[in-house]
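Dissemination and training. As part of the outreach component of the grant, students in the summer workshop were shown how a complex can be specified as a set of sequence lines and then modelled as a single object. The example used during the hands-on session is reproduced here so that future cohorts can follow it. Participants entered these lines:
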Amino acid sequence: MAASSSLTVSQSLVGRTRAHHGSTTTTHSDRLSLPGFSLSTLAGRGIKSSSSPSSLVVGSRKRVNSRSAVRAAAVETLDKTDTTLVENSINTIRFLAIDAVEKANSGHPGLPMGCAPMGHILYDEVMEYNPKNPKWFNRDRFVLSAGHGCMLQYALLHLAGYDSVKEEDLKSFRQWGSQTPGHPENFETPGVEVTTGPLGQGIANAVGLALAEKHLAARFNKPDCDIVDHYTYVILGDGCQMEGIANEACSLAGHWGLGKLIAFYDDNHISIDGDTDIAFTESVDTRFEGLGWHVIWVKNGNTGYDEIRAAIKEAKAVKDKPTLIKVTTTIGYGSPNKANSYSVHGSALGAKEVDATRKNLGWPYEPFHVPEDVKKHWSRHVPEGAALEAEWNAKFAEYEKKYKEEAAELKSLISGELPAGWDKALPTYTPESPADATRNLSQQCLNALAKVLPGLLGGSADLASSNMTLLKMYGDFQKDTPEERNVRFGVREHGMGAICNGIALHSPGLIPYCATFFVFTDYMRAAIRISALSEAGVIYVMTHDSIGLGEDGPTHQPIEHLASFRAMPNILMLRPADGNETAGAYKVAVLNKKRPSILALSRQKLPQLPGTSIEGVEKGGYIISDNSSGNKPDVILIGTGSELEISAKAADELRKEGKAVRVVSFVSWELFDEQSDAYKESVLPAAVSARVSIEAGTTFGWEKIVGSKGKAIGIDRFGASAPAGKIYKEFGITAEAVIAAAKSMLG
Amino acid sequence: MAASSSLTVSQSLVGRTRAHHGSTTTTHSDRLSLPGFSLSTLAGRGIKSSSSPSSLVVGSRKRVNSRSAVRAAAVETLDKTDTTLVENSINTIRFLAIDAVEKANSGHPGLPMGCAPMGHILYDEVMEYNPKNPKWFNRDRFVLSAGHGCMLQYALLHLAGYDSVKEEDLKSFRQWGSQTPGHPENFETPGVEVTTGPLGQGIANAVGLALAEKHLAARFNKPDCDIVDHYTYVILGDGCQMEGIANEACSLAGHWGLGKLIAFYDDNHISIDGDTDIAFTESVDTRFEGLGWHVIWVKNGNTGYDEIRAAIKEAKAVKDKPTLIKVTTTIGYGSPNKANSYSVHGSALGAKEVDATRKNLGWPYEPFHVPEDVKKHWSRHVPEGAALEAEWNAKFAEYEKKYKEEAAELKSLISGELPAGWDKALPTYTPESPADATRNLSQQCLNALAKVLPGLLGGSADLASSNMTLLKMYGDFQKDTPEERNVRFGVREHGMGAICNGIALHSPGLIPYCATFFVFTDYMRAAIRISALSEAGVIYVMTHDSIGLGEDGPTHQPIEHLASFRAMPNILMLRPADGNETAGAYKVAVLNKKRPSILALSRQKLPQLPGTSIEGVEKGGYIISDNSSGNKPDVILIGTGSELEISAKAADELRKEGKAVRVVSFVSWELFDEQSDAYKESVLPAAVSARVSIEAGTTFGWEKIVGSKGKAIGIDRFGASAPAGKIYKEFGITAEAVIAAAKSMLG
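and obtained this result:
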């Protein structure tokens, strides 16, 4: 009922001055002004100061480069012919999608057909990028959160001249080995920023990308030079809007005032099960106003190109809030019999309907054909992109002269190169060092690393004082202090993970970490999986990693979590036992930029154990003590994290009784798996079948390590609410149990 | 900015008629009218028609039973003395919480201190329940979504006379074996409806409880008898509000118009990391208006008892929308030095501050003391609760006379007793039956069961036509058709799971199922874990269970998911291979009311295999074919789900070469684990170490089954986008691979 009253509807071409947003200064981002300028061609571009208030136009049908100083000298007028050109371009996008899905007989044509106009305007008129260097640092970022519509993005990348999507790639859409998989994957297709498809992830990634931009801009921009300066655009659909993760991330985007985040909500009223009326009748506009966003409604997203342009203009003018542009479209626009129905969402149209759609939209061409006028029109993006990057490079050279230190730091963030000797900053410990919880030792590592790693930033989902994640030398990243590095995510684990994916994939040198209780990885598992799949080197700082957390009880006590992540591909599950191992875990985590790491850390105090080391951690499993010889211990005791201490204690007892006992720390199964067979044999000799593992978690999977004659001590039920010591005892996670198991094998 | 303008503030005691809500009929729920009636005592209650418009009062300081016909004959006036009594009661709640946390030196005193007023009003003045039968069907449900504040609920249950929380239970708060664990757990503490603590789950459970009430009321109520008729109350905090799951579930609650769901939002501005300003500045009110809720703001939740009462009255008057009552409170109210700070959230106050708080609130009593006047006042709830239940029982007897069939069905839903021979409805198949995807076979089972199980209802997260979950004989559960059984959850997996937990725990005979792609269990894992922990027998219908889904690619292809659920306690992970096994999986799922089941189902067609059976599934692992004798096969081939066919094919080839080959279907590890040693030996004899397993998922964990000399064939990397057959071949999930592995063992 309050839904429509408070909605801002932008239908006018004329850009409005939104005085109530309060920003009146003429800055680098104050670049939206007089309409009427015309399409620039690269050849004719000169260099002009970007601070000119009339230096660009968005909201007209002309494209003028906005942020760069590149400007048109030659003027090309977009008149009626140009409208035809725009429509041809939009229909090209539609039919590339239709044809690719048809050829694969698999895929989602509906979204590309409906979103082609906004896609065209973004990639052809608005966004700044360099097709031949998809990783150019200062590019605008685009995220297709509704990832099933990936043919939209592939068509756009193809038209724009990206090498990753040639005609043959479109023709091998969704086929083995192609660069055009069924959903956008950054690790397969240069030009794709993040991996989407699982709904809601993309918009949250985009919040991370926009956060990264705001943070880096605040750190590196100077009054005379905005060296970091790009927008983040997203297209999300009804599905994304329904997902809780989207609400979490968008609440943060509003809180942080991410003014350069512009999200297009493809409001097409159709989801897989039919009309959204059956499950989604909330007022999205009102909700986003509640979240602190600027909301615009484009009522005619199908052919209202100028409406879309005006909305972008308005969105850019609002500098202190992210903008949601609700674009009402028709899913499968152009298909006479399937448009506006769920049947066009996720299946090929079928030959007959493809023909009918060709007739309906007046498209006489063969499949995959790009008309010459469209090809010619888009061909400018390759030289223009090169010029944009060249211009930025020149700008950077100027910047470097004036701000040497900052330039060097920014360079390292762009390249991802770690400062020489950074790992020397990691603390080391001796057995005499005081006992401490690994969550506290983790904080020592984080704070040590913050001094040497310019890209380290992160925080917790409202558990900073429990997860021990605050960087003491920095303040909070907030709307008005975006240069700071402590990020306050609130109780939004899922959004947090996906935001960190966005940060990690913004620039190779950014190293985001995030934290909650280990059990609550369940809330963010979908985002963690995307970290692993998309090679986003996020560091997950997960404390309270077992029944050792005590009284909070079984809702808070992880049991199956270690196993569940050991089973996940391309992720490092690390469970350090003390200070040296925690430092080792951080070393591994920082070095694995293309593989996320999860650190499982204790709430409770643990002693500094003799024999632990950073180098040991790097091998995943290693011997911390051994009184055997000839690689023939009587028994091998294996522990991880807080239970390594128990293994060590049990070993002491057994050795008193004359046994030859080896104690192995098994901090990371994945790293151990990667060692040579010889090394593995040196730690776990095949001939020694007397093996006892102990870990305060499920025994699931441990047969691999202890073998069928070994014994895994663990917990295969839910935990309980009581003081930690009591729970350990009641559940038999004790040195006595290890000793008994060992003795039963030794006969 | 629109936040406050549209907010409905209720501060008046006088109930407003909210004409714009449109409901003007005088029905059973139209029971809020004239204030001024007085506290009923049970002894004086007569029987009077509940349709009288003046039959109850909420919004005065008097408690009059609302829904029951029990009415006061004796009138007791609550004057100034009574305000003192109310304050004493509220302070009793506060100090029981303070003292229990202090004794345990662990827990969360802040919320109970701030929410004691609303807690008192709910349990003493508003809610209908029977302390001596916490499972009385028609009770009002209460959910403490901010579960860390559990001492609030324990104190209330104690005062109300529940046997589960005696004084000694309060004194053993958070101790081993107590009924007062660190967070509310329905399986530990009668009177607790659901298990909370992980934030956001509780409000979503409450949506499920309210859905169940609306559904059952629509099915069973008659114009002359509202046999199903209760409210669902929730207290949630800032943490719950930040969680995406809460937004998902509340969007559905608004969509469904759950008018009898009344949520109290404890707006205390403090979360663990400090002031909510650091991460949570959205307008919750505006968001909830967008979600279609009625929103009320109680500005003084600390002492504004009448404001709280008036808000409840207003909430009840709004019948077509759920209500959010934002109650602004002070966390740790009463503590002179710690109130309104994060330090009172999750730690004991400490002896000194406890003393100061006692002084500040004028509380001269020893720890755990309940003053006599408070004890006397609350003592009426035991007889009153008994009378409420007796009255409802009498009503039910009347109902039963008139509506025999409905009464029998409702009885079975209340008791959870399954109809005799229900499992005969399950379809069976022969090898001649057509090949089909197990997702389709699952739909046949669901539709067969819907005819015989009155409590079966559920749906999908916007994938009904992919998950094949529609019950063809029913329509959609919607706002105006709540009697139907197809629930449309939208793309809200997490909310869906938690809503199903609420449905399952509403009544033993309700059997909720819910569905999405198997990989998206990642989105709802926290809710699935609560199903397992809280013994909620939800059936999770998870289709597209492997790389066999093909072109959608690695974002959609589960790899680690089977292992990750096998590692989770108290859950059945079932992966049927064909029609008989799918039927068997449903039989097991329905019978396991206190253990949730996950059915992993194929997108692709699978043949009906010789040897499969419902009975086999019940044993978890069983032989489907064998040409060996004396329990001594040369090799055992083990498969699950879509790969059982591959094992069978490989066996055929090997037998042609004269080998004695056993094929074992390993549909559920958990069920196999529960069989006798003799049975296990009959399927997997210890002497036979030549074992090959094949499963299109991670090999993690399979060492337990195949042993160190066996071979597990699977996929330990992410999948790929291509047609399914191609992916199987490229990843080596083939009969050839099984044959090669078997031969390598046979020498």
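Chain B has 26 helices and 24 strands. Students were then asked to discuss how this feature might be tested experimentally.
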